[in-house]
Recover the amino acids of this structure.
């Protein structure tokens, strides 16, 4: 059986480390079904939403066993491309991707190529998953005193008071400085992705379900 590849592109190192950790069971299941999942950071939202479309198109046009996921943060809005919500972000990225296919010799295969390209996002950013895991946050900070001041479900916490700013304040009142690449992955290290998906069911759950859907088709 041919090896399939699922490549997941994210903004930066903290996103990559967190997903590698919490999706470890999914990665292991994929390997058992001849599918390799890899995570790739792109140096920020601008690069991810502008340059990665061309890279993705080139990969998918030349590798029939490849699947690509683009997973930016929704916040900040209108960065890299114009978008005021997730649907606008998704539509613009897919349009840019398809434009590249149409301009190539693979234009007649656009439907089959398009089926292997996925756009999801963190709503509004990675720290949403931390807000969905208050017990892990309390353990990490070694405190039982943590007031829940954010919305539930945490994916409804908006860009006016984004999740990262809430986490930064929680750390600051304890005389600590939140370091995204260090603290984020550490807080979420042992979190069950299924629990996160049940709480963050607007954006994170569909993202996980699409990955698992690819794997399960390999089992059939």
């Amino acid at each position: 059986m041919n090896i399939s590849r699922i490549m997941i592109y994210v903004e930066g190192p903290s996103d990559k480390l967190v997903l590698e950790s919490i999706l470890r069971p999914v990665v292991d299941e994929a390997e058992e079904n001849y599918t390799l999942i890899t995570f790739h950071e792109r140096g920020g939202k601008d690069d991810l939403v502008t340059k990665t479309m061309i890279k993705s198109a080139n990969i998918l046009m030349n590798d029939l066993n490849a699947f690509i996921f683009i997973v930016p943060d929704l916040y900040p809005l209108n960065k890299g491309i114009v978008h005021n919500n997730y649907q606008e972000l998704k539509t613009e990225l897919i349009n840019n991707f398809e434009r590249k296919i149409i301009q190539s010799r693979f234009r007649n295969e656009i439907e089959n190529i398009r089926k292997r390209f996925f756009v999801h996002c963190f709503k509004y950013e990675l720290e949403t998953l931390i807000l969905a895991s208050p017990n892990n946050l309390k353990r990490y900070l070694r405190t039982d005193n943590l007031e829940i001041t954010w919305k539930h479900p945490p994916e409804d916490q908006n860009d006016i008071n984004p999740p990262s700013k809430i986490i930064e304040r929680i750390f600051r009142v304890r005389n600590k400085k939140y370091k995204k690449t260090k603290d984020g992955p550490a807080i979420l290290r042992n979190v069950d992705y299924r629990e996160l998906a049940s709480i963050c069911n607007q954006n994170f759950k569909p993202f996980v379900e699409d990955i698992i859907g690819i794997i399960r088709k390999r089992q059939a």
Notes: DSSP finds twelve helices and four strands in the chain. The chain has two domains: 4-124+193-219, 127-187. The chain has a mean pLDDT of 93. The two ends are 13 Å apart (CA to CA).
